[in-house]
Automatic annotation (TrEMBL):
UniProt similarity note: Belongs to the class I fructose-bisphosphate aldolase family.
Recorded catalytic activity of this chain's protein: beta-D-fructose 1,6-bisphosphate = D-glyceraldehyde 3-phosphate + dihydroxyacetone phosphate
Annotated EC: 4.1.2.13
MF term (GO), any: fructose-bisphosphate aldolase activity
Protein name, as recorded: fructose-bisphosphate aldolase
Swiss-Prot/TrEMBL GO biological process terms: glycolytic process
Functional pathway: Carbohydrate degradation; glycolysis; D-glyceraldehyde 3-phosphate and glycerone phosphate from D-glucose: step 4/4
A Pfam entry, by short name: Glycolytic
NCBIfam families in the cross-refs: FrucBisAld_I (NF033379)
Enzyme class: lyase
UniProt keywords, alphabetically: Glycolysis, Lyase
Signal sequence bounds: none
Length: 337
């Protein structure tokens, strides 16, 4: 484990008000995205849309890393250039999704445990050779009747810690992603309780595994009401409760927290991040690792048509810039186009 190198990449990803594009949708998930614009789920379509994002001129001013699906890490553009090389040429770190998905737990089928630890270290060594410099593993925590169970939180935290150690041993910066889902009718207070418990359990396990905290990034949910809750927390309540939860749970050695958008709209995700950064300095950089909240408008604009590329570049550039501004608390809804 090269601690200096890991810390340099981790802190570099969240430096200069930049963040991460999560473009690591699995092939079936990408199919759902493409279906929204009546496009077939072909390798060519997946590549062409992702390449449109990577080719956007000047996006490196706002995006420091891109999480890729395995297919994309070695995929080539029509001219033979590897997509990951396009990113590298702009000074953007390529990352890789390494988990094998969340599966129902044997003891509690309504809860999920993420798999993929078998052979992970060897895979990480190969991903590093292919150009990846960081990785991502997503754990899913569901709030519902009698859940999450302690067993589910503990099992996912343990897997996240083992993943993080394997990554660091292979010189990849691990993004640790324990996501408490928005699905459900739970209150923002319940989300807070579950998020705090989950994060504290995760960091205890990271310590047990000997994970080097300055060489990781945390990718948590924001503390937010369930999507079906009748009382939704306003922007400031989300910001204040999220920061309080992180302050109680996340050691200061962690260089950055890169939020997932978790089903929020593009503007909501930007507004919440901005509100947190307007609150003042925090021990860690607060940034973004958004998928849909960076891509949705760009996907609709692209619509599978080459003629729409220039418009797609403009839309994606704008969304990336808005989130970069939110990293310094300088975003305003008046800047939206």
């Amino acid at each position: 484990m090269n601690k200096e190198s890991l810390a340099k990449v981790a802190s570099g990803i969240v430096a200069s008000n930049r963040g991460i594009l999560a473009a690591d949708e699995s092939t079936p998930t990408m199919g759902k995205r493409l279906a929204l614009i009546d496009q077939e789920n072909t390798e060519e379509n997946r590549r062409d849309f992702r390449q449109a994002l990577f080719d956007t001129d000047g996006v490196e001013d706002y995006i420091s890393g891109v999480i890729l699906f395995e297919e994309t890490l070695t995929q080539k553009a029509k001219d033979g250039t590897r997509l990951s090389n396009i990113l590298e040429s702009k000074g953007i770190y390529p990352g890789i999704k390494v988990d094998k998905g969340a599966h129902p737990m044997d003891s509690s089928p309504s809860e999920k445990l993420t798999k993929g630890l078998d052979g992970l270290y060897e895979r990480c060594l190969e991903y590093y050779k292919q150009g990846a410099r960081f990785a991502k593993w997503r754990a899913v925590i569901t709030i519902g009747e009698g859940i999450p169970s302690d067993e589910c939180i503990q099992a996912n935290a343990s897997a996240l810690a083992k993943y993080a150690k394997a990554c660091q041993d292979a010189e990849l910066v691990p993004i640790v992603e324990p996501e408490v889902l928005m699905d459900g009718d739970h209150t923002i207070e319940t989300c807070y309780e579950v998020s705090e418990k989950t994060l504290k359990t995760v960091f205890k396990e990271l310590e047990n595994e000997g994970v080097y905290l300055p060489g990781i990034l945390l990718k948590p949910n924001m503390v937010i009401s369930g999507s079906e809750c009748k009382v939704q927390g306003d922007m400031m309540k989300v910001a204040e409760m999220t920061v309080k939860c992180l302050t109680e749970s996340v050691p200061a050695e962690v260089p950055g927290i890169v939020f997932l958008s978790g089903g929020q709209s593009e503007v909501e995700a930007t507004e919440h991040l901005n509100a947190m950064n307007k609150m003042g300095d925090h021990p860690w950089a607060l940034s973004f690792s958004y998928g849909r909240a960076l891509q949705q408008s760009a996907l609709k604009t692209w619509n599978g048509q080459k003629d729409n590329l220039e418009s797609t570049y403009a839309v994606f550039h704008h969304r990336a810039e808005m989130n970069s501004l939110a990293c310094s608390g300088e975003y305003s809804s008046s800047l939206e186009i």
